[in-house]
Amino acid sequence: MAIKTGAGLIESLRKVKSVFYIGGEKVDNFVDHPIIKASLKSICLNYDLAHDPEYAELLTADSPLTREKVHLLVNIPTGPEDLVKRIEAVRLLQQKSGGTCTQRNVDPLVPAYSITYDIDQELGTEYHERYKEWLGHVQKNDLMINFSITDPKGDRTLRPHEQSDPDMYLRIVEKRKDGIVVRGAKCHQTNGIASHEKLIFPTRTMTEKDKDYVVAFAIPSDTKGIVHISARLPSDTRRYEGGIDQGNPFGSHTCTIFYNDVFVPWERVFMCGEYQFSPELLKRFGDHHRATYGGCNAGKADVMIGVTATLAEYNGLDNNSIIRDKISEMVSSAETMFACGLAAAYRGYKTESGAYHPNTVLANVSKINISRFPYEIARIATDIAGGLLFTLPSEKDFRNPDLHENFMKYFKGAKNASAEERLRMFSLLQSMIFGCNAVDLHASCPSAAGSFQAARLQINRVVDLKGKKRAAKIIAGVEG
Amino acid sequence: MAIKTGAGLIESLRKVKSVFYIGGEKVDNFVDHPIIKASLKSICLNYDLAHDPEYAELLTADSPLTREKVHLLVNIPTGPEDLVKRIEAVRLLQQKSGGTCTQRNVDPLVPAYSITYDIDQELGTEYHERYKEWLGHVQKNDLMINFSITDPKGDRTLRPHEQSDPDMYLRIVEKRKDGIVVRGAKCHQTNGIASHEKLIFPTRTMTEKDKDYVVAFAIPSDTKGIVHISARLPSDTRRYEGGIDQGNPFGSHTCTIFYNDVFVPWERVFMCGEYQFSPELLKRFGDHHRATYGGCNAGKADVMIGVTATLAEYNGLDNNSIIRDKISEMVSSAETMFACGLAAAYRGYKTESGAYHPNTVLANVSKINISRFPYEIARIATDIAGGLLFTLPSEKDFRNPDLHENFMKYFKGAKNASAEERLRMFSLLQSMIFGCNAVDLHASCPSAAGSFQAARLQINRVVDLKGKKRAAKIIAGVEG
Amino acid sequence: MAIKTGAGLIESLRKVKSVFYIGGEKVDNFVDHPIIKASLKSICLNYDLAHDPEYAELLTADSPLTREKVHLLVNIPTGPEDLVKRIEAVRLLQQKSGGTCTQRNVDPLVPAYSITYDIDQELGTEYHERYKEWLGHVQKNDLMINFSITDPKGDRTLRPHEQSDPDMYLRIVEKRKDGIVVRGAKCHQTNGIASHEKLIFPTRTMTEKDKDYVVAFAIPSDTKGIVHISARLPSDTRRYEGGIDQGNPFGSHTCTIFYNDVFVPWERVFMCGEYQFSPELLKRFGDHHRATYGGCNAGKADVMIGVTATLAEYNGLDNNSIIRDKISEMVSSAETMFACGLAAAYRGYKTESGAYHPNTVLANVSKINISRFPYEIARIATDIAGGLLFTLPSEKDFRNPDLHENFMKYFKGAKNASAEERLRMFSLLQSMIFGCNAVDLHASCPSAAGSFQAARLQINRVVDLKGKKRAAKIIAGVEG
Amino acid sequence: MAIKTGAGLIESLRKVKSVFYIGGEKVDNFVDHPIIKASLKSICLNYDLAHDPEYAELLTADSPLTREKVHLLVNIPTGPEDLVKRIEAVRLLQQKSGGTCTQRNVDPLVPAYSITYDIDQELGTEYHERYKEWLGHVQKNDLMINFSITDPKGDRTLRPHEQSDPDMYLRIVEKRKDGIVVRGAKCHQTNGIASHEKLIFPTRTMTEKDKDYVVAFAIPSDTKGIVHISARLPSDTRRYEGGIDQGNPFGSHTCTIFYNDVFVPWERVFMCGEYQFSPELLKRFGDHHRATYGGCNAGKADVMIGVTATLAEYNGLDNNSIIRDKISEMVSSAETMFACGLAAAYRGYKTESGAYHPNTVLANVSKINISRFPYEIARIATDIAGGLLFTLPSEKDFRNPDLHENFMKYFKGAKNASAEERLRMFSLLQSMIFGCNAVDLHASCPSAAGSFQAARLQINRVVDLKGKKRAAKIIAGVEG
């Protein structure tokens, strides 16, 4: 079987010699850097749970490409059940990783598959075969892919070719016999560094004048000219400290990546100037990712609900009717997000390529909901948890012999909950709301799977407003 | 084929000699009463669209019971696709009827089917066979069923047997050789009068002392002792006037029904004292009805979106970005409701009886959402529509020759929209928000498919809070 | 004292020979028309409570203009306490009239006062003296004023002079020696018919080319060429029936009004082409009316809270913690609206004319809040009230001897609440949400005191964003 | 004049020898500890701005107690304008400190003043004179007070005397001739360490059996037996790093404080067993603090609005209508919070002691609003800011010569905004939402001025529900 273990993954990543800066220093290999530890721990869950008998069926799939059992998150779905499994899988992974992103992003693999097919059909290119070749390689070696789309963008009112600096969107600066040279930057790269391969696509609708910006390709992450710089994440240095204070040993990690005149051989180029496909391409990426997000956020909510219910229990308030009502609200919000993701999956359609695509309206509605409900869930969690969420002592003070006895006495809860249990549980919630893992919560609205407003516009674009108007006119007697 | 047309339905209802009071008068037959016209028009849609080639496949099904093609809304679903069809069907029917309830309620038929099966299995009774007999009769004759559950309830803090008046919940007052005699009232009966048969079930969880209140049965609507009294609905007398002012020629109708010592033969009794099944029974009714409601409310929202978009167009504002953004919000809310209903359908399970049951958490979450989104949709519609919504003249004034020219001049819209078109469109929206059909909007929260709080409690009951707590404890390091 | 009684008001209105159409008929005098009865009852509260020793101090004021005691709602405020009294007064009036509009609109009297002063100061005109003359007449005779602003507007993307029909905004069609002739329509006129005088101002910002549309004046309501047409309001014909079914004997009433070449003498003209003052004029109208609305809506909410708490009590649920929590939410929303109105009043400023003006940002924020909270309050009321809200029988059925006993039995509540008490209370709530008085609820967002979006834009216009940006830049170290 | 400068404050705090643990270490004096620096910077603003000619009038007051000019935030208000000034002052301080808490808490000084007066009047005690003596000392020396109320509380369903451990609420363990000895802990102490004096009051309603827990007093912060332990705050160690990465050089700080058998002399005891005053005491604390919070949160929102508008400008989107609409929403929310605080201040009442008290309902409504609006404001800020908020590089990487040029190129914005400007602005927003200062945002709901639910219950307690019910009954015709 092609599926790696977590340990195997780390060994394979150790061989990728990517250029990586963090905290002002260039580090030789990121896998041993303490601040990356939590992120790798989350990523490894993807791999290890696929070997766990309880979850193997959910997390693996038969690839039509390699005719092998591959990891679910690198497989191309061909029917609704495949997409539904994906949404269930990401919910599970969030539950197991304390609501963090396990950073294996299958979503773009599929639209890249279908759009290259469509381009080839229309223009007689051979992108799809190239792409399948590459994807087979990914599946066989069970690789981590860093899919990149977002460019710096400069002035948002200007198109790529209108920017004062021509590099504000990644572009082709040279076309050679053996390949192309690209320049630019990709921002907000979850899982940027912990990857074997990059998969790059353009970030917005392009016009003919933007042709040089319409470029898609895949290359190894340690290709010359690629530079990764770690983002600073909230409370990141607690990763050095470990222990209770980091709240959750799992985490995620993001990068900025510069592409300083990077060479891409033709066999890895999947788009090169076909601007007319850019709207459909973006729609497809958005649809896939936004549908999946319903599952992610439900899983994150599950953890928050579990923590909140536990903290209420520690206060002796687990049967308080107001608190139960609020927890019921948290559940409703979680399941609403899940339902939208699922409905988008169940009601998708097959593309010409054979890859299955989620329902566009429902996928974008999923994004709208994950742009709001998580905050409301977090607010209720905060409300029920109470003030200790904001005033937890450090583990070092807690364990200081001068103080330990006092902490054990005063911080104990109802029903024999010890001070340490409470402290751990509060620290986990803290990490989700404003600690080490808070990025995962707060990025739901603006950036996860594109912005809120991008989803809004997509809904406007595809909803059958004309049909609804016509139906209203018939009822009102304005039309026959 | 067993399926009636609308005309056939009305003929058959004409033969039902139910006792009916409206406006202080006892009327001989309701089908000719002008105030009931709109409601019958909605109900007939159920029947007529099942004969429309465009919708016949959606609205019909093969009954395993009668081995005939029957109306979808009297069939027992045996898999997820059957439930999904139901949700699609109710959305369609709302779209076609201008957001009104077409009042054919299949939801209770299914839990009645499965619970009678379970009771028989456990207690050796023969309720299920009786029920199937009756249901076959319903399917073959394509009957309208008035399913009743809600009792007056008196003091809500007291159980049925604790009430000062023993009749505040419908109960068995006599058991005879040939049947039972029941007394009580059923409130809030959508489609109370336009029915061939009653199907009665208890309204709440009962204890052993409440045994006499645990009774289920079916009888013809014109059985002796049954009295229907019409509710007064908003702007009901505009039904007499017809025309533009009623806003929408479709509508729905509700009744209060008294059961003054009504005899029920044993072959029509489906429960008689089995109090221990009451919680499960209620859960099942709730689940079915709450899942379906997601479809209903999405359909109603579709109409409101269509009206709103048309009114914006009449103002020349169809491309205004703020208005488009608001309409996108309406669509999101509509589709979220639909998604929850669908997800509940897709992720249900088969009961022992073979009938398919929706997912309990998702069905109840659907109810939570339909308790809120419709108001927000209506608020946005109101916001975009503008003040004319509240100040429309009567059709009679509009057509008065003294005034007509002025109205035509001043009420015309952008892009050649005539005053009459605008007036009609506003009147339709008015009917939905505070006119003839406003009941359908405002009852979403408290009473449609049980109260908001009933859904909240059901979520609390079934959600796996223990599992979520355990998962949180593992992540936090409190449990191993 | 100049203050009329309710009876005196009606007598004086009887003498106003306004042209009025309702239900397709021209009626001679509206004061005896049964459908206007409820509206007059609300209006009379303004007058009668000013004579009630308990409220006289609140509802009267010393006019600097007439040097007499006049009704509060025709007086020009000169300090914050005057505005605060107004907000308290409208809250009281809503409480006493069951949440209906008592339709005495002082708000426009003040900006008309201050803007005419400013125009005169700048342009040497004599509008302010004319206006004071007229206002003194109003105060001395304690008249009802129908202030009109909203025009039909046609295509909203076009300015008045760009419309295909030049009359879509009211305009001067002729200037004569003795006065001007105007043509146009005024829409959405609460209190249109029950007025002695019209006070007309333009409805939007105008440019130089729109000069003919910049016209303000006052004339008697029965001036030749003025035609009033009654709006159809929800359940309006229940006003004929009276009794329990109308829910509330108080109400409000709105009109469309046509100005078919109406003559206005110069001494009653207050603006005539001064387009450059139109933005400030609109801002001032908006500010006054939007601040006041905080009080109105709090009063309406008080009634809804009272009804809801009573209905909960009738169900035996007055001590249920979830219900108490929901009622607390209703109170919060009500008081938030009140607080915004009050804060706008307390933190206003004196205009050059001496008239006191509310704070612009807070007044517009008040409008934003009254565009949302009332719906949420109504939703909670609906939720707690339960299904009977939608299925109340008619009073005639209730009193039918065939049925009365049954109703008395089954509709009685906990704690000796009789069926009639419950029916009355439900009917009151019904009238507010989708019955006779529902206009007052649903018009809060779009039209009361201008649209939601108008308030949004006004906030944008006046908020000191530059100052906030500068402060942020200093903190961030971007500016020194 | 009694008012210290910031520098003077720090000098005086240096002399306070409080016991303080942070990061597992006992530190000799907190004023030099780098992690406390930001908090002291915020606190000093209180002092320094009172010397700034622009703000001196706002931030100082004439004390009736000392007959001197004192700092506004240690003065007892005697009329509405004094409370209004307080709310304006805290808004200003938040604006100037980047939305952080400047931690000078006048709110409890006032209810302590008025309740000791009331106790003395009723019971003939001499608490009020003692308290005035102490307060005069505070005013003359312009001291920082750490007001403490919240106890650990253990099982929340049990009263203090019912807890398994008798010390879960602070209590009198010994009464001596010269004073009392107390034991317990106080949690969530904003400004715990940076204080000259403690002022302690009980945290909940007490019964007669809880008499030993009803104790109020003031003592120097370095009294023997008092132990402070620093909370770990989000990204706290960035305070060591300083620079751009901490986002905002201002901050706040919280502690847990143990009282290990601490002696309090009688002249500093202000309550000792008078349990019957505990409900009123708590109400008064809540009212004052909750009203003030309206100002705080408006100020914090001002900063967030300024940052957001600047970031939109950096993207070239400052005139985008959707973004302007969203910013208008942020302003509405900010001003609504402010309005509730102001309205509570304007509509308060004078207590018997002469101290002025805010309106209870409005103060608690203020809390309800600050429990929700700040999250919505933060969500919109996040939405508009975009993904860079989550992926900012460290300052060290930004300044690394290998990378600097690239960052300057790719992170520059529209209209000549430099990469560093953008980075600084994003870092400020990051600090507010999930960085160094995120505590100030997220604690709004659960703990600031008591919990959300505490405010709910207080509203329930004081709102005149009976009056509202009666008014409804009169309208409905149920009562005369």
Give an overview of the whole structure.
- By secondary structure, chain A is of the alpha+beta class.
- In chain A, 46% of the residues lie in helices and 14% in strands.
- Chain A has 17 helices and 14 strands.
- Chain A has helices at residues 6-14, 37-49, 56-59, 80-96, 109-123, 127-141, 238-241, 278-314, 321-346, 360-370, 373-385, 395-399, 404-410, 419-433, 438-442, 452-462, 465-476, and strands spanning 19-22, 25-27, 60-62, 69-71, 145-148, 171-175, 179-190, 197-200, 215-220, 226-230, 254-265, 269-272, 349-350, 356-357.
- A six-stranded mixed sheet of chain A has the order 2-1-10-11-7-6, with no helix packed on it.
- In chain A, helix 1 packs across helix 2 (37-49) and helix 8 runs antiparallel to helix 9 (321-346).
- The first copy, chain A, is globular.
- The N and C termini of chain A lie far apart (62 Å).
- In chain A, 67% of the residues are buried.
- The interface between A and D is large, with 91 and 91 residues.
